[in-house]
């Protein structure tokens, strides 16, 4: 698809002056004559019609990582980008579709797919490579796939380097650290059993860890259940080293999320599967609570690709990719309004949260706390809803919100990331600033005043408050992770752009990965771990 193989003649440039691009644009764009030229006109010195050299145009389109929306706009404004380009691998594809396909081929998840698998994904994305590209890019943006990450689990912690190496530390009563033992670890320790396996995503539950490799395989260890709750025979055994989840061997998994009663996984093609908690059709299927087989999430999302999942205590959020934009679906328990539909009603099948359309907000990242939820919009706005206890919604009170509501205290902040825990919320701005609000127990909000007159580091915060202790780090924060369990003291991780990991909050089980000294149980100020995740 480049100029050397397309058969089109090379372009001859004549008498081009050596001047900055800004000067060229400034002197040429305003002229009416240039605006009237068409893509199919005759070539003349200094100019050439696009139709004479489509391979050059295709190269430009794929060199700048354009968004799918940009390619769609080109098709809408110029027929040249819409007509068949007559290039391999499909002569009927337009230039914009070919550019989208070429950019898909660069994606780590798409690259190893067979032609049949790629075509199936295209079919799920309404037959458009541009929508496939948007689906892939959206997943990369919200899930930190192929990048370093840290998980502040219930009493234990997981850290993944950009090369896919995994460290674990903290509580280990069920072998959830994966070291073949049940002793606590107070310093980050690499999981030797994973040598030679590249991990791209991790998630934790109470006494349980799940890891996903770059080949889509899922490894689990700790308590042998698919939820925090111990149901029937589930949770009666311990697995102290990473073991493949047999029932997922035929599903290429890219993300997993653990709730209290269930586990959900997301496939490469955007299908959602759930384990356990199927009695009474709570997740759209009727199965025994001990059922260990993944069941596809039925209903509206059967034919809509999902790019991210987030599990709360008893509900699931799904960020879906549709031709009109991104949308959020929720399913599960509706108490407190955490499903976002304006009521407390449970939903057995995924239901679209319509409020985002009324707010004219295009969701880009979803976060499911134990009892409340949050979304980052493409324009940087933050919305929260659900239980408002301790001020975790950031609206200045402790009231429940039954539909997503914009956080007014962050109206002047452009958010890029949000994290939720057990009644706590963190927001990362595009300039690297971090805000937190909600429950201050265990000092997990990061507000550490110099003296008692300036406040209490355990105080609840009802409205967004800048975490000045992170600003003092002089490091750009790219990810926050919070403990998302009602039964464990909370701790928080802050991962920086340079791969440094900071921790604060509860550390009574070694989950902070730092030395707390004699009788120390927590840290109120971010402390640097001796580990490099870059």
From TrEMBL:
Domain of life: Eukaryota
Annotated region (Disordered), positions in chain: 515-534
Record's keyword annotation contains Repeat: yes
RCC repeats: 164-215, 216-269, 270-322, 326-379, 380-431, 432-498, 499-534
Domain RCC1-like per the UniProt entry, residue ranges: 148-482
Cited Gene3D superfamilies: Regulator of chromosome condensation 1/beta-lactamase-inhibitor protein II
Record keywords, A-Z: Repeat
InterPro entries (UniProt xref): RCC1-like_dom (IPR058923), RCC1/BLIP-II (IPR009091), Reg_chr_condens (IPR000408), Ub_ligase/GEF_domain (IPR051210)
Keyword Repeat: yes
Stated name of the protein: Ultraviolet-B receptor UVR8-like
Provenance organism: Vigna radiata var. radiata
Gene: LOC106767619
């Amino acid at each position: 698809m480049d100029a050397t193989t397309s058969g089109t003649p090379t372009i001859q440039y004549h008498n081009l002056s050596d001047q900055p691009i800004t000067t060229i644009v400034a002197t040429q764009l305003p002229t009416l004559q240039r605006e009237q030229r068409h893509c199919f006109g005759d070539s003349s010195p200094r100019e050439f019609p696009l139709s004479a050299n489509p391979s050059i145009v295709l190269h430009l389109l794929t060199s700048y990582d354009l968004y799918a929306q940009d390619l769609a706009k080109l098709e809408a404004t110029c027929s040249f980008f819409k007509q068949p380009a007559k290039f391999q691998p499909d002569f009927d594809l337009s230039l914009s579709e070919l550019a989208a396909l070429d950019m898909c081929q660069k994606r780590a998840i798409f690259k190893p797919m067979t032609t049949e698998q790629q075509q199936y994904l295209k079919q799920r994305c309404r037959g458009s490579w541009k929508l496939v590209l948007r689906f892939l890019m959206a997943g990369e943006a919200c899930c930190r796939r192929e990048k370093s990450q840290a998980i502040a689990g219930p009493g234990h912690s997981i850290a993944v380097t950009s090369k896919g190496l995994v460290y674990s530390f903290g509580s280990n009563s069920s072998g959830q650290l994966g070291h073949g033992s049940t002793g606590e670890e107070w310093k980050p320790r690499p999981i030797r059993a994973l040598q030679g396996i590249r991990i791209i995503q991790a998630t934790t539950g109470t006494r349980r860890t799940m890891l996903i490799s770059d080949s889509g395989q899922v490894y689990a260890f700790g308590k042998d259940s698919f939820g925090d709750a111990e149901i029937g025979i589930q949770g009666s055994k311990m697995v102290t080293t990473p073991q493949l989840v047999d029932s997922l061997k035929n599903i290429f998994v890219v993300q997993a999320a653990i709730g209290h009663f269930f586990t959900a996984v997301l496939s490469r093609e955007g299908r959602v599967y759930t384990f356990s908690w199927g009695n009474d059709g709570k997740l759209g299927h009727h199965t025994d609570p001990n059922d260990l087989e993944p069941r596809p999430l039925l209903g509206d999302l059967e034919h809509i690709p999902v790019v991210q999942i987030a599990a709360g205590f008893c509900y699931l959020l799904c960020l879906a990719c549709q031709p009109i934009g991104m949308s959020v679906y929720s399913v599960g328990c509706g108490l407190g309004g955490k499903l976002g539909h304006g009521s407390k009603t449970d939903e057995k099948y995924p239901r679209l949260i319509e409020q985002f359309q009324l707010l004219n907000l295009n969701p880009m990242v979803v976060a499911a706390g134990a009892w409340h939820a949050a979304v980052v919009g493409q324009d940087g706005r933050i919305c929260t809803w659900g239980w408002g206890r301790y001020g975790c919604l950031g609206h200045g009170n402790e009231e429940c919100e039954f539909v997503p509501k914009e956080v007014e205290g962050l109206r002047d902040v452009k958010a890029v990331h949000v994290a939720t825990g057990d009644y706590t919320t963190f927001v990362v701005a595009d300039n690297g600033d971090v805000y937190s609000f909600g429950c201050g127990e265990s000092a997990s909000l990061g507000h550490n005043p110099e003296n008692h007159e300036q406040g209490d580091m355990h105080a609840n915060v009802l409205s967004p408050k800048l975490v000045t202790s992170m600003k003092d780090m002089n490091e750009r924060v790219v990810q926050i992770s919070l403990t998302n369990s009602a039964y464990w003291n909370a701790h928080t991780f802050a991962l920086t752009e340079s791969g440094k990991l900071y921790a604060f909050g509860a550390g009574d089980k070694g989950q902070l990965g730092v030395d707390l000294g004699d009788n120390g149980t927590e840290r109120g100020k971010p402390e640097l771990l001796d580990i490099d995740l870059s």
